Inverse folding.
């Protein structure tokens, strides 16, 4: 068999195994090693397993992943999301559609200290959903706004997916985080605008919430200091150059722990829960990383990434044509896989094409993360939608997808804006020097 | 009898999970102390970098043990979700058997790597301490993973009611 | 008629690094000499595996030839570590021939799992810092990103702190004050943008990093006698110098570039200052001697042989 045929067969086998629910990382590792052993020999292939596994888990720069996960987990169990939502709600919840806006704003605030979009969606399903339902917000809108708001978790820094993209492409994690800030704020603003348009079109659909006296509003707002301090400390420290990204994660996790203790929001079981959840998610992500490296070595031997670059650039559809093609491919993959798996599987293959076409790697990081995050909310499957469904039991997938539809349109508009004006993403990181 | 051995297994699983969780905390502490020492005392823990990355290795392999047992890996659930209960079980058993095979091979090859680190006398950067004991502890996490996946496979086939699956919201992060 | 052989060459430096075209030229010459029966594909940028694993990759057949930094695994190659001691090499090109001629006698024992092809060094590196460093006592209290474990030990013994970071991370480390100084060869300073964040450059050949280019044994053994001869003819001190040449030129040229930039101070050391540095390095050498004794070599004989070779090839300080 020619290397090309082996590569194609490898992809087919990979998709079959994944559809049979073999963990994504294990499937990539298995196919990678079998393919490698066919092309190079079983001895080197087996040695590659031990070497790659050990090297990946003991790579210091990868430490950034579990550290930001731990920070997010500690913040989650400290009840910060509830405080954020309460503050946003008492400020604007009384306006028509205000509870939806409050949810978006609180999601953004939570996203500024938590790196995961699924965690953001999960926590606000528990916090914001009951409140919206109490004021007769439709089920579809309530779940839709949470699914969309959740994606802010991965767009605004810190972001696990952005960190993984940075590691895979050897870009500066700090710069990628900075690149996410303005587009993240843009995303929030556009979600708010979307809600405003919905209110305009269907004035009675999203009623106003409770009006609270100003004394209470200020009291609720005061509780926001802790996440704010943590964000300024970690992201400011990264921007100002006090920490490396891995250190920022470790110090952020320690900061979240100390703040939780000082504010009496943490106890034994909660600490245990946070530690366990960080361990589990980190282990799951590293499994995919190891598998993707093994699969990547196999693809390198077949030289298919080079051939793909040649093929795509030889199509004669221009660089934006190729970019559009790549993004459509991501949207299709988004029907199957979650964001992390998609990034890890495809970036090593797609990235050389992007560099070859002369696109900015930092900008592309933001674009690609937004695109895969879109996969988390678009039908037929989406991780954020699953998560909401598991918390809010009495809602159907169709209802959630219906509610999320206007936000999907917004996301696509936002992507077009960012492709037309890369400066939105690149302005802050270039100022960093 | 079955109940007794089940609770024994559960206790072992909890212990393994706890050990992994503690290592996450230690990695964060190591970084925190290193940063504080550098910023305020102009000094460093010797080998903080090497310790940090080797602790990371330990945490991940022990974490993989816990994650594998709970079914917490990142999976593509499209077909599974659409399948009927019988088909679901077939898919689950197949996926777990593949998982068991892959992690068993990985564990064997990691042993080879640990042995190599010992034989080749690889030392830490600052203090020149042998690195193989750290690698051995990490490797032992993968051994636990094989054991736990074996237990998972057994339970999945014979006592599916004893399996405690992870909920989607606890699943890996995107 | 020789059976056609295709070799996978693995280098972990990025594609645009001057070492890669030199390795490609080496491979092209092999192709010519073997009448096309030995071809090669060069994989740069860690495409086949991480930098730290390159020795094992050649041993295990993951790559057929690999570019190894033995210093990445302190303790594993004690004899070779001698070449990374401070103030030995005056230049990179001649130094590459010198280190190869010297290490050839130890390679069969110390790197027994692979077929040794040749050893080489880069052009000597030095301190580039935010605060001026002239004497060993200046290191006290400084945070330094060392190039090798040996330089790291020197820093520690002088009361400094080591900061570990990959080469691309180094600029950030310096800019953010995580590190005050770095030891780097001259050309790479510009390549990684470090010239934007440091001001002072000590003009003294502080250290070199030794590298080896090694081959998978099985691949070599499976070749025909004629092919083996072609490989052997390309694993020589001359080729070591030829392959190291473009990189050495690049690093060497960096000094003039930095000196020409405004806002940079490139300063020479007086003989007394240089002497103080040599004295400061003595404990590192003693520590190295101990590690060599453990593997049954005589450190004095090893070091004298290295110095002799350096003199022979006009690379001694
Ligand atoms: Na975030
Ligand atoms: Na989707």
């Amino acid at each position: 068999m020619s290397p090309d045929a082996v590569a194609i067969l490898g992809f087919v086998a990979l998709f079959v195994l994944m559809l049979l629910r073999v963990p994504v990382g294990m499937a990539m590792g298995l196919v990678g090693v079998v393919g490698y052993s066919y092309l190079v020999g079983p001895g080197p292939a087996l040695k590659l397993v031990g070497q790659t596994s050990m090297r990946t888990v003991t790579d210091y720069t990868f430490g950034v992943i579990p550290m930001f996960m731990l920070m997010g987990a500690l913040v989650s169990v400290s009840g910060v999301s509830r405080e954020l939502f309460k503050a946003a709600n008492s400020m604007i919840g009384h306006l028509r559609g205000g509870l939806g806006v409050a949810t978006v704003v609180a999601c953004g605030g939570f996203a500024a200290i938590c790196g995961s979009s699924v965690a953001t969606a999960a926590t606000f399903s528990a916090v914001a959903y009951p409140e919206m339902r109490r004021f007769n917000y439709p089920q579809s809108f309530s779940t839709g706004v949470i699914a969309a708001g959740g994606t802010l978790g991965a767009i605004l820094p810190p972001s696990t997916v952005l960190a993984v993209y940075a590691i895979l492409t050897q870009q500066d994690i700090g710069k990628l985080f900075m690149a996410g800030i303005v587009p993240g704020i843009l995303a929030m603003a556009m979600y708010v605008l979307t809600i405003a348009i919905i209110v305009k079109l269907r004035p009675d659909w999203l009623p106003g919430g409770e009006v609270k006296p100003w004394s209470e509003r200020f009291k609720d707002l005061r509780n926001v200091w802790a996440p704010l301090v943590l964000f300024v400390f970690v992201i400011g420290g990264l921007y100002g150059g006090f920490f490396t990204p891995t250190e920022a994660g470790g110090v952020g996790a320690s900061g979240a722990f100390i703040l939780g203790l000082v504010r009496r929001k943490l106890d034994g079981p909660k600490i245990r829960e946070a530690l366990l959840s960080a361990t589990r998610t980190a282990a799951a992500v590293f499994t995919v990383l190891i598998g993707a490296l093994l699969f990547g070595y196999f693809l390198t031997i077949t030289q298919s990434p080079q051939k793909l670059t040649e093929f795509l650039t030889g199509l004669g559809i221009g660089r934006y044509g190729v970019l559009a093609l790549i993004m459509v491919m991501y949207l299709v993959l988004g029907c199957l896989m979650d964001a992390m798996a998609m990034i890890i599987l495809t970036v090593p293959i797609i990235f050389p094409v992007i560099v070859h076409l002369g696109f900015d790697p930092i900008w592309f990081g933001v674009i690609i993360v937004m695109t895969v995050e879109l996969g988390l909310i678009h039908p037929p499957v989406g991780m954020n939608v699953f998560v909401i469904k598991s918390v809010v039991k009495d809602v159907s997938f169709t209802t959630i997808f219906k509610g999320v539809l206007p936000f999907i349109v917004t996301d696509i508009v936002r992507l077009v804006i960012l492709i037309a004006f890369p400066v939105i993403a690149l302005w802050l990181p270039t100022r960093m020097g | 009898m079955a109940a007794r051995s089940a609770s024994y297994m559960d206790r072992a699983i909890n212990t393994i999970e706890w050990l992994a969780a503690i290592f996450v905390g230690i990695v964060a502490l190591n970084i925190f102390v290193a940063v504080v020492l550098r910023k305020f005392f102009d000094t460093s823990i010797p080998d903080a970098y090497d310790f940090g990355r080797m602790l990371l290795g330990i945490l991940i392999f022990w974490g993989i043990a816990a994650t594998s047992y709970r079914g917490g890996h990142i999976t593509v659930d499209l077909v599974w979700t659409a399948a009927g209960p019988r088909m679901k079980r077939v898919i689950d058993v197949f996926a777990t058997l593949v998982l068991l095979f892959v992690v068993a091979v990985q564990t064997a090859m990691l042993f080879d790597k640990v042995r190599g680190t010992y034989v080749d006398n690889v030392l830490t950067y600052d203090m020149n301490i042998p690195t193989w004991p750290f690698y051995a502890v990490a490797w032992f996490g993968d051994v636990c993973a094989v054991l736990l996946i074996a237990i998972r496979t057994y339970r999945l086939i014979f006592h599916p009611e004893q399996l405690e699956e992870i909920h989607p919201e606890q699943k890996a992060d995107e | 008629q020789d059976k056609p052989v295709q070799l996978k060459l693995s280098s972990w430096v990025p594609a645009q690094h001057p070492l890669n075209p030199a390795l490609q030229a080496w491979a092209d010459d092999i192709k010519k000499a073997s009448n096309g029966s030995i071809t090669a594909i060069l994989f740069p940028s860690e495409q086949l595996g991480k930098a730290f694993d390159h020795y094992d990759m050649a041993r295990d057949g993951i790559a057929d030839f690999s570019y190894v930094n033995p210093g990445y695994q302190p303790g594993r190659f004690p004899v070779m570590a001698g070449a990374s001691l401070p103030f030995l090499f005056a230049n990179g090109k001649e130094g590459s021939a010198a280190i190869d001629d010297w290490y050839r006698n130890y390679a069969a024992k110390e790197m027994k799992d692979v077929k040794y092809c040749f050893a080489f060094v880069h052009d000597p590196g030095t301190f580039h810092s935010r605060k001026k460093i002239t004497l060993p006592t200046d290191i006290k209290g400084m945070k330094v990103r060392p190039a090798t474990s040996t330089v790291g030990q020197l820093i520690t013994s002088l009361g400094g702190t080591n900061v570990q970071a990959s080469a691309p991370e180094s600029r950030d480390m310096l800019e953010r004050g995580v590190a005050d100084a770095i030891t780097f060869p001259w050309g790479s300073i510009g390549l990684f943008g470090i010239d934007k964040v440091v001001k002072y450059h000590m003009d003294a050949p502080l250290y070199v990093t030794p590298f080896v280019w090694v081959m998978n044994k099985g691949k070599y053994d499976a070749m025909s006698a004629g092919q083996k001869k072609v490989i052997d003819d390309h694993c020589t001190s001359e080729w070591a110098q030829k392959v190291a040449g473009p990189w050495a030129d690049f690093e060497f040229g960096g000094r003039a570039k930095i000196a020409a930039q405004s806002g940079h101070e490139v300063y020479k050391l007086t003989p007394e200052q240089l002497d103080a540095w040599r004295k400061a390095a003595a404990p590192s050498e003693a520590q190295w001697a101990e590690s060599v004794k453990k593997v049954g070599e005589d450190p004095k004989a090893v070091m004298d042989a290295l110095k002799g070779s350096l003199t022979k090839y006009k690379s001694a300080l």
